[in-house]
Amino acid sequence: MSDRGSVKPFVKFNAKQDAELLRKAMKGIGTDEDAILMLLTSRSNDQRQEIKAAYKKAHGKDLVKDLKSELGGKLEDLIVALMSLPRLYDAHELHKAIKGAGTDDKVLIEILVSRTPEQLKEIVKVYKKEYSGKLEKDIMGDTSGHYQRMLIILLQGEREEGVDESRVEKDAKELFTAGAEKFGTDEDKFINILGNRSAEHLRKVFEAYKKLAGCDIEESIEGECTGNLEAVLLAVVKCAKSVPGYFASTLRESMRRAGTDDETLIRIMVSRSEEDMLDIRAKYKKKYGESLYRTIQEDTDGDYAKALMYLCGGDD
Question: What does its UniProt record remark on the domains (predicted)?
């Protein structure tokens, strides 16, 4: 539980009482969506699990199934996501990304690049239990080439720790030689360095790289690589610089294009609400000159918008 989340555990929490409030909001004529989303967005994930248990004990019914039968569309997707355990939700999103029609590479990249080593190890375990298959094997079956290798390295969750001062210059030179100086890019070098060094170490490498190349590493990656490999390398660079910064720009892309990418919007707002939403908001405001709250307000509507704004936790 991070203190940079917008959702904190509810202080006067009473699972039984909450279960009854939800039951009341769903019973009778018409559903009180507002009561449901206000309650669930102001409880932590652990507390939501307790409510689920209390609901089953009192009514012999599955709370999530009942919620699904009362809600629809994007609001339903959002509420079901909120009710899932975080790593189970990640595993589910990855499974959907792999097993759906075509691969949803955006999801693979976002989750594998942004989760901590501990979280990744947990995802692998949960995935195996839920889908009785190996996540690594499923990713390999659905991807190829250098892109596949980068994803598999990230999935190991074995990044080095700390900064190795003696290697900063060397890494920067290797990246420079592998990319800018060479006809045809030596992708292996990029994959090896960006996939294995710590975020602190990489930040120093990027500074050294800029001095050598006269441009940011992102520019070189954009010039040298294409497609999914380019996308995953850029995401790694952004996350090494700042995970909240990465999510701020991903949220921006999900909304400020023609048509809102609701799946991405829901996934980030739910999965970061207890991690670093306050930092994402600060980065967003700084980078785009408007608050995340306002963008959500302008880009979405109805109860769905309300729920997202509750998760955002306030205007800046």
Answer: A pair of annexin repeats may form one binding site for calcium and phospholipid.
Q: What tens digit of pLDDT does each residue of 242-282 get?
A: 999 999 999 999 998 778 999 999 999 999 999 999 999 99
pTM exceeds cut of 0.90: yes
Determine contact, residues 195/236, Cβ cutoff 8 Å. Answer: yes
Q: Give tens-digit pLDDT for 125-145.
A: 999 999 999 999 999 999 999
Is residue 46 within 8 Å of residue 79, measured between CB atoms?
no
CA–CA distance, 250 with 71 (Å, rounded to integer): 27
- Given the candidates 3.40.30.10, 3.40.50.261, 1.10.220.10, 3.10.270.10, the CATH classification of the domain at 167-241 is 1.10.220.10
For tokens 């769903």, the residue is: 26
Return d(Cα 154, Cα 232) in angstroms, integer. 10
Helix axes 243-255, 292-299, angle to 10 degrees: 20
What is the maximum alpha-carbon separation in the chain?
70
- Name the CA dihedral angle for 214, 218, 220, 226, rounded to a multiple of 10 degrees: -170
